[in-house]
Specification:
Blueprint (H helix, E strand, L loop, with lengths): L1 H95 L4 E4 L2 E6 L13 H14 L6 E7 L6 H21 L7 E5 L12 H7 L1 E7 L13
Parallel strand pairs: 3-4
Antiparallel strand pairs: 1-2, 2-5, 3-5
């Protein structure tokens, strides 16, 4: 009976040990899973942090590149503006040395008035041809310019006569400039009759001023609006 009782106790102890081992194994498995989960979460956090650093670095690099590009564009624009202003000023000085020239939003306007046309005539007088030769020499050295010859008359005569006369004066001016080397494709003409007088038509002197042709010189770096210009 004692042997049987001892054997029973041994089985109970063995069963308890098996249960304990199973519990220990379960706890170890849980701990291992927790360790693995924590390691995965830490790795995920580290990866996320690394990705965030990369994105921040890329954003900073892109922002820096954009700032550099904008700065380069500003420098180029400033240089272009400076070159354009330089061309405009230089051409204005050159033309003004020959005939009265003013800077406007339309471009540089060269005023050919005075004793350049006889009353009722469209033929260029010698003084006009001399000045136009100099103007043509200046214009032909600057590529890409556009010139428009605009003719005007005094108030004497009919509307139709003055319109035709103003067109003839502008056309004769255009043709002479072309003869002197200005590219034909760069110059055009039109007439305004007795419109837009620059002096009173009540005096001989005023009418002489109104018998004129104006050359409107435009093009890249010339036409751009400038503070203080008119028209």
């Amino acid at each position: 009976a004692e042997l049987k009782d001892g054997s029973h106790k041994a089985r109970i102890i063995s069963a308890r040990e098996a249960i304990q081992r199973a519990e220990d194994a379960r706890l170890i498995s849980i701990q291992k899973q927790d360790v693995e989960r924590l390691a995965w979460e830490r790795k995920a956090a580290e990866d996320k942090l690394e990705q965030s650093k990369k994105e921040t670095a890329m954003a900073s690099a892109a922002e820096g590149a954009a700032l550099l590009k904008n700065r380069q564009a500003e420098i180029e624009n400033a240089g272009l503006k400076s070159n354009n202003e330089g061309l405009r000023t230089k051409l204005l000085e050159q033309l003004n040395a020959v005939l009265q020239t003013r800077a406007t939003a339309r471009g540089l306007i060269v005023n050919m008035s005075g004793v350049l046309f006889q009353n009722g005539k469209a033929t260029l007088l010698p003084a006009a041809r001399e000045k136009l030769s100099k103007i043509a020499g200046i214009l032909s050295t600057h590529k890409g310019l556009k010139i428009e010859a605009e003719g005007f008359t005094d108030s004497n005569g009919t509307e139709a006569f003055n319109q035709r006369l103003s067109e003839q004066r502008a056309e004769n001016t255009k043709d002479y400039l072309v003869q002197q080397g200005v590219t034909p494709d760069s110059i055009s003409f039109r007439g305004f009759g007795k419109g837009n007088p620059i002096a009173s038509n009540d005096t001989d002197a005023g009418r002489q001023e109104n018998r004129r042709v104006e050359l409107v010189v435009s093009g890249e770096g010339i036409t751009a609006s400038k503070a203080g210009t008119s028209e």
